[in-house]
From TrEMBL:
The keyword Zinc-finger applies. Residues 1-28, 223-246, 266-317 are annotated as: Disordered. Signal peptide: none annotated. One of its GO terms (biological process) is mRNA processing. Residues 13-27 have a biased composition (Basic residues). PANTHER family: PRE-MRNA-SPLICING FACTOR CWC2, PRE-MRNA-SPLICING FACTOR RBM22. Residues 148-225 form the RRM domain. It comes from the Eukaryota. Residues 84-111 form the C3H1-type domain. This is Pre-mRNA-splicing factor CWC2. It comes from Ephemerocybe angulata. InterPro entries: Cwc2/Slt11 (IPR039171), Cwc2_RRM (IPR034181), Nucleotide-bd_a/b_plait_sf (IPR012677), RBD_domain_sf (IPR035979), RRM_dom (IPR000504), Torus (IPR032297), Znf_CCCH (IPR000571).
């Protein structure tokens, strides 16, 4: 049995970025020679970036260790993108093999989560996202879900889980603040969750086919959605808080102060009181909890009622729905003064004469043709 070790790291404040110098050229043209995998198929699949009909993509025979690796402290710097206003990051910089340096048209820094990209359907490298993930959870990703968690496979574990955790944190914290890490001991698998999605996108490219302290070749891809209900609730609350914060930032502060003053006057307290702000936050949290309890209560009531609502059973030729419809038409005739229609009580009755006025006489049947 494999043991699962989950650790939530304390949120560290983002360090102030130092004044950058011009970015250096990570490699010289021609230094990196791309080695192609042996062709084992007949057709090249551009979606999976491999030859179709050959070996599986995750076989060691098709994985080659990356020849370069990005070093943020040494490689980060200013490029032409800082003057032209381009907010996208250089993909080759993340992989440690950009030969242009300060002449590059893309940024040579870790993406800033506070930056708003021009197109939300693209990742931080200006690559188009897709509606669905690939079957192997590789590639660019999906624009239908914000994914901040990476699947790290083929890890050569240390003697203890604590040592393995320390190695993973040391190698992955370089790309951004880590929210939590989860290790599947004895399975050589770990899940790393970053505080923002841009850091996860950068780390996925920076650590693909890299090694930790041992000579392994990491398999880095997107993680599937966590089935834990608590994790889903936390992610939902986080997205709601982000949305509320974005709305508050775009609202006029005077309107926010006026709304707070009106609410304070209704409650008869001083709007400038610090205790009132704390109570206001507690009230909002209590309202959210109450909404959750009401939703759960309604769901339980629906579940209690649903078993009682059974499908009407047929009584002979006529079903219960048909009988109820006839009762309804009979009540209408009584109100309009028309001749009432006898209520059908038994399943098999002799054919009744067609009533005049509103009724079923306008509808034909097979008997009318005879």
């Amino acid at each position: 049995m494999s043991e699962v070790a989950t650790k939530t790291l304390p949120v560290q404040p983002r360090k102030k970025q130092k004044k950058l110098k011009p970015a250096r050229k990570q490699v010289k043209p021609g230094d990196v020679v791309k080695t192609e995998a042996v062709q084992t198929g007949k057709e090249y699949n551009i979606w999976y970036n491999k030859w179709a009909g050959g070996d599986r993509e995750d076989n060691y025979s098709n994985k080659v260790k990356s020849q370069t690796r990005c070093n943020i402290k040494r490689d980060a710097g200013l490029t032409r993108a800082n003057t032209t206003g381009n907010k996208y990051t250089c993909l080759f910089f993340a992989r440690g093999c950009c030969p242009y340096g300060w002449e590059c048209e893309y940024r040579h820094t870790i993406p800033d989560p506070e930056d708003v990209l021009p197109d939300t359907s693209k990742d931080c490298f200006a690559r188009d996202k897709f509606a669905d993930y690939r079957d192997d959870m590789g590639g660019v990703g999906s624009f239908n879900r914000q994914n901040r968690t990476l699947y790290i496979g083929r890890i050569k574990e240390c003697a203890s889980a604590a040592e393995t955790e320390e190695v993973i944190i040391r190698h992955f914290k370089e790309w951004g603040p880590i929210e939590k890490i989860r290790i599947l001991q004895y399975r050589s698998v770990a899940f790393v969750t970053y505080t923002d999605e841009f850091a996860a996108q950068f780390a996925k490219e920076a650590m693909a086919c890299q090694s930790l302290d041992n000579d392994e070749i990491l398999n880095v891809r997107w993680a599937t959605e966590d089935p834990n209900p608590e994790s889903k609730q936390q992610e939902k609350r986080r997205l709601e808080e982000m949305g509320q914060e974005a709305i508050r930032e775009r609202m006029d502060p005077r309107i926010v102060d006026a709304m707070r003053a009106v609410r304070a006057l209704e409650e008869g307290v001083d709007p400038n009181d610090a205790e009132y702000e704390v109570e206001e936050m507690e009230d909002d949290e209590e309202d959210e909890r109450e909404d959750g309890r009401q939703t759960k209560r309604r769901r339980m009531e629906i579940e209690d009622v649903q078993p009682q609502q059974q499908q009407p059973q047929a009584l002979g030729i006529l079903s219960a729905d048909t009988i109820e419809s006839l009762k309804y038409f009979a009540e209408i005739r009584q109100r309009t003064g028309a001749t009432p229609v006898p209520v059908v009580k038994k399943a098999l009755l002799p054919a009744a004469p067609k009533p005049a006025g509103l009724g079923l006489a306008d509808y034909g049947s097979d008997d009318d043709d005879e």
